[in-house]
Amino acid sequence: MKTRRFCPKCGRPVLKSQNREYIFQCNACDEDFCRFEVFRKTDLSQVLQIRKVEFENIKSRGGYIQSLKKPFHIFN
Predict the structure, then answer these.
(1) Angle at 52 (CA atoms; ends 51, 57), nearest 5 degrees
(2) Strand order in 15-16's β-sheet?
(3) Are 48 and 56 in contact (CB under 8 A)?
(4) Rounded Cα–Cα distance for residues 8 and 50 (Å)
(5) Which residues pair with 13 in a beta bridge?
(6) In the chain, what's the furthest Cα-to-Cα distance?
(7) pLDDT digits (tens, 9 = 90+) for 48-75
(8) Mind giving me the DSSP string for the chain?
(9) What gap in Å lies between CA 36 and CA 23, rounded to an integer?
């Protein structure tokens, strides 16, 4: 389900959490978040900046980069 909320660590879209203690989860980071921790669509400039940093980190580690728009990335 699309939530229009983004992970504060990697900037990827988050999903509704199956854990009752948390509301959102990021499958890329394997983290759960509360409502106040995630970014909203109004914070898109910060989200794009986080994605660029994450993109550079993956690139420097030699990981496989799909796209900045894809929700998950695959490492070799």
Answers:
(1) 95
(2) 15-16, 24-26, 31-33
(3) no
(4) 8
(5) 6
(6) 36
(7) 888 888 888 877 887 666 655 555 444 4
(8) ----EE-TTT-PBPEE-SSTT-SEEETTTTEEE-TTTSEEGGGHHHHHHHHHHHHHHHHHTT-B---SSSS--B--
(9) 10
